[in-house]
Every structure is written in structure tokens, then in C-alpha cells.
Amino acid sequence: MTSAHLYAAGRTPFGRFGGALADVRPDDLAATALTGVLAKAPGLDHTAIGDVFWGNANGAGEDNRNVGRMAVLLAGLPTSVPATTVNRLCGSSLDAAIMASRAVETGDADIVVAGGVESMTRAPWVLPKPARGFPAGDTTAVSTTLGWRLVNVRMPAEWTVSLGECNEQLQKKFGISRERQDEFAARSHELAVAAWDAGFYDALVTPVDGVELTRDESIREDTTLEKLAGLETVFRVDGTITAGNASPLNDGASALLIGSAEAAETIGLDPLARFAGRGVHALDPQDFGFAPVEAANTALARAGISWPDVGAVELNEAFAVQSLACVDAWKIDPEIVNVKGGAIAIGHPLGASGARVLGTLAHRLAESGERWGVAGICIGVGQALAVVLENTGSSKGGVR
Q: What is the pTM assigned to this prediction?
């Protein structure tokens, strides 16, 4: 088996729900991210792309009918480039990257693209299809933006509570205070602002044609602990989770260029990082926020390293409380986590977030020279994924 490497990463800016990207179709967002990442390898003959793996969580509206393939066609790639769409909810694009890395390692493809997209603004309302042509009763339109819908009555009620209620339960279990959550959220915004101001995201973000959005739209430069403390809780009157310490609803797309070590000449780039370990974990649906703990531990074991070796962590911030629970369980220095800001500030367009955290991780490793990094993401209905990257240009140990 050959090794799989990450050569380039890119994404659109992430827009707020109903914000700057509200008029942009998800398949167009996907095509923008795809075009943007391939622009980083201008010498690559696109007929050499063996496959495209694309993440998408909803797929109920304009992102239907295999949005990965639609992105390939809309981006103007050769019709010979195949594509598939992957749905593991919030983990969809990280799952796509994992599948892409396996395709390279097994020799099924030499060069692949992975990524994901979500327009939570444009996710449609759906109506259950009646068994008969003229139902006697009323029918309710259901939003597909987020969470459970059209729930099977055989599902236990404790599994199908809202994502926020799941995390209020997690808060009770681990005793993570509102104050800690708000501090974590404020840090996310502060670090995201600093990273943008320093130019870290300039090479990672591709503008969307016709849209005046140059930065992630959910970042609030004026966020303070005092403002966060003044927000009302959302899911419980006596709870701790607010709109300020949870990720917002967003629109956006992310993409990754992945290939074998031997593909470097064809791609025209040196690889950023090697896929060193992968992990998946599942538990009770209501405990989904804690699932990254074992997913990351599994990925580390498969990479042959342990937490003291890790210099950078990118953990998708679905909620501050679940992020803190994971960091506490790993017993790692919180200062290595999401140092360029996280999803609470940057945003969480479901199908795009996994590729975002992985691309950010690779660029963090390249910037810092650290050898090992972990990207992780929790997934609704009780799952999580994680990937260990090795910095192939590391000044701290070299390639394993």
C-alpha cells in the first residue's frame, strides 16, 4: 500500500444563516470550493483526477441528485471525472476525506478531491408524502435545516431529543459551567479575528462570485464575556447553552486535494501532510458530543503515537460544552486546540466542516513546524470521526 497525502486545502468564506450566501445554491458553493482548491495546482491535468468524494448532510433541496457530481460538472471539469456524495451528517466531508485517503492507499486512485457543502439557509421544508391522493387531515411542512425530522415512532424518545438538549445533558454529566463555556466561545471569536488579521486564512479561502463576503460572516469582533453572559439560555430555562456558546447555522463549502506521494510531480506541489491514522466511534445518540474522545484515541493508536506527541488539534466546536468535555478527557493543553478560531466563531455548515478542520490543521502544522496533529468532529445521532496528520515538512522529527 502507498501512503495518502494532503496537497492543498481551500474553502469558501462561511456565511450566516440568511446572510451573504443566502442567494447562492449549494451546488454552486461546492463548485466554487472545488475550483478554488484545484487552482492551487495550476499544472494539474484534471483528467488525472480519479474520483471526487463530497460530503453533504441534508440533500433535500438543490443539493440533491449527487451534489458532488453536480459540482464537478458546474466547475467545468472533464465529464470523465467521477464523483460520489457522502452523508455522515456533520462528519460528511471528513468522512469524504477518509474515503479519499483509502482510495489512494489501496491504489484505486492516484489523485482525488474530497470536500463538502451545506446551505443551511436554502435547506427546504418538506411534506410527508400521503399514502392516498387526498388526505383528510392537515399536513405540516418540516424544516430540513438541522436535527431530527419525520422521526420513526420506534425510536426511543431519549435518542431523538434536540442537539441542544443532548448537550445540556452532557453539561450535567461533567459539570462544565456556563462561565467556562462562555470563555471558550469568546476565545473562539478572538482567535478567529486574530487569524484573519494575520493573513492565515487568505490562502485558504476562495471568494464566491457575485458576493461581497471576504471573511467568515459569523465572526464577531466585538464579542465579550459580558455580552455572552447576558444571553438567555435556549434549551432549558435553568440550562447553560446559549446562541453565543454554540455553533451557528451557516452556508459554505470546503475542498481538499489528496494524492499519493508519487503524484507530487503530476500535481505540481509538495504535499502538506500525510494521513497517518483514522478513527470512528459511536455511542448512545444523545451522547454524540463526547464521541470524538474515542475516535481520536483510535486514530492516534493507528498512527502509532499518543497525545504527548500531538502539537495541534482542530476540534469542530459544535457546542462549547462538548468541546470542553473532549479536551478535558484527552488531558491535553487547551492552548493547542483551535488556535485559529473554531466553529463557534467561523461557523458550522454541516457537510463542509470536516474538510475545513482538516485543511486548517494541515496549514497550522506547516506554519508551526509541529509534526503531528489531530482533526476531530462530533456527529449527531451518536458518532464521531478523527484523522491524524503528519506534517511531511516538519522540523520536529521528519516523516515517520
A: 0.96
Instruction: Give the pLDDT confidence score for residue 210 in this predicted structure.
Output: 96
Residue at grid coordinates 456524495:
85
> What does the pLDDT average to over 36-45?
98
Higher confidence at residue 318 or residue 136? 318
Q: Which residues are catalytic?
A: 90, 348, 378
Hey, what domains does the chain have and what are their CATH numbers?
4-123+247-389 (3.40.47.10)
Binning pLDDT at 50, 70 and 90, where does residue 398 land?
very low
Is residue 353 a contact partner of residue 252, using CB atoms and an 8 Å limit? no
| Model confidence pLDDT, tens digit, residues 131-181 | 888 888 888 899 999 999 999 999 999 999 999 999 999 999 999 999 999
